[in-house]
Amino acid sequence: MSTLNKQAKKFVAALLSAQQYRDYTNVAASKADTYHVVGAGRTISMLYEQVRNAAEYSEDHLLLQRAIRRFYTRLFITGDIKQLETSGEELVTELTLSGYLANDSVSLGKVDLLTQKAAEYYEAYSAIKRSPRLTQMWVVDVLAIEVHSHLTDYLVRESFEQFVFEHFKDSIDTKSLYGKNVPKDYELLLFVAVHRTLLKSDDATIRWALLRRFGSTPRQQEEYERRNEAIDDLLTSKNNKYLQRMVNREGAVFRILWQTIERNEDVVKTLEKPGSFLQLFEDTVNMTYEDIEHRMNRGVVRSIIFLIITKAIIGVAIEVPYDIWMHGEIAWLPLAVNLALPPLYMLLLRLTLMMPGPVNTRALVSQADALLYGKKQLQYEAPKTSNQYGAIFNFVYAVLIIGIFGLASWLLVQIGFTIVHLAIFFVFFCTASYLGFRLSRNIREVETVENGINGVAMIRDFIYLPFAVVGQKLSQGYAKFNIIAIILDMVIELPLKAVLSLIRRWGSFISSKKDEL
Prior knowledge:
By secondary structure, the chain is mainly alpha-helical. The chain is built from 22 helices and no strands.
């Protein structure tokens, strides 16, 4: 009978320790007094969050921390010291009314801790003399992740993160990746790669994890700034690209392993029984396939809402005024095409996405067996890059991209599109293509067996891949300067949350008046 190998035993011990600490804190929290939220605005807050999340199109696991970050961004910009002194209560109230937290789920002690954290980071926010963008990333973004870690169970995930990091550190053939010039900060680059590809962490989460690893806090201002500068260089390093591709390619088994841990409270005991665990792992694979189906369907809906919201705003702001100014009337056909085609295109892309089959499932189970119970250390070599296929393939690919864009432009001009209409069309069509690619990535993330490309998939990839490449660049720029999100934050969220807070205070005032009678 196989037993856990050395790395797996260490992982199970860390996992057990994290779970025991979680159980201990849960018991302590169940006996402590909790913060109860009473107040108006639940329906409005939850509705707004749905609209705000659609406008930003974040990963589901990032939504809570993004909501926390928006709260502290507003708080720190206003610089209201009185509000800072009650920020823990205000944050928990806002997150509860928005549907992120269950009522009575946060202890009063933790509320006080959140207030203390906000005061600590606000002191650094006021002291650091850098650009607003850097100060936001170094202080507000890190505070949001710090608070998020106190509101969620982070230690189990941290144990998994360390196990994956150590496995790849021992398994990757660095010579195949870098030759003789292995970067001095290779281990930190690997840490970033594991976070980005397997845990889907954003840069704020990675920054917080690295600062935590270094033991760096805002109280040590000079050292804290120096660490953040080093992290900025690390996150933008050119050496990240190929390492991330390598970790991502071998990541399917780890993603399923994490799902298995998350879904099963007694997974530690099961891990020590190979037969039982591998059956549990296989069941998780099949459940993950089902989850991906649901997630992709939900993603299509969110993508369509995102496209419609942004298109409606741009149509009102640019396209309609342009038509009236240039032609004296609205060009209805280009407007209708630009509004309807990207969502329909998203639906068609979804119909071409197929889930992996039993062969992939068996391969994942076999990899899990080797990872946890195998005695031989696994070895990974660098994946091929497009440059390795030769200049001819890359030249033909470039010609195809130009040809596809040229043909699409010619067809649209024939039905009355102008330069402005074409620009708007390609922005949204490329964005839709990239959103479709992100949906397909859900499948690729659990694929460990290379499947042959059928005719439908080849035609799909031929058409949408060039647009997806452009869409990725547009989305990266959009994420840095999300005008829709900025409008929502400044025009709607800031006054909305202020009004709701005022209403809650008024309710408390009226209640106190009743008590005085």
